[in-house]
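Write out this protein's structure.
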Amino acid sequence: MSDTTTAISGIHTIVIPVTDHERAISFYTETLGFEVRRDASYGAGNRWVEVAAPGAQTTIALANRRDGQIVGEETGIRLATGDANAAHEDLKARGVEVDDILNFGPSVPPMFYMRDPEGNRLVVVEVA
């Protein structure tokens, strides 16, 4: 039997490429209520900004788009909420582009897609 232990202890950061840091920071902090955890310049004109929901361990890094990197695509990121319906109505009222709530039945929590100002698509999922 193989040893399945690992030195990896969790997921630290997920990266979303952006073309406009200020617009992205405004959306994630003012619209979603996230906090900026890191804002650093590096290299020739590059910027790395990490945002997170208050109390969350995993951050979302808003990083410079690289040549050939697509902005405005499915991110694969799932954001948690205690109430999908309330989150949907709140985000919609704040002007966020949201899709209809998806209900797949009792074994799958309600969820919906939303887009940030860059067109990056994220999913908001109701968690117990």
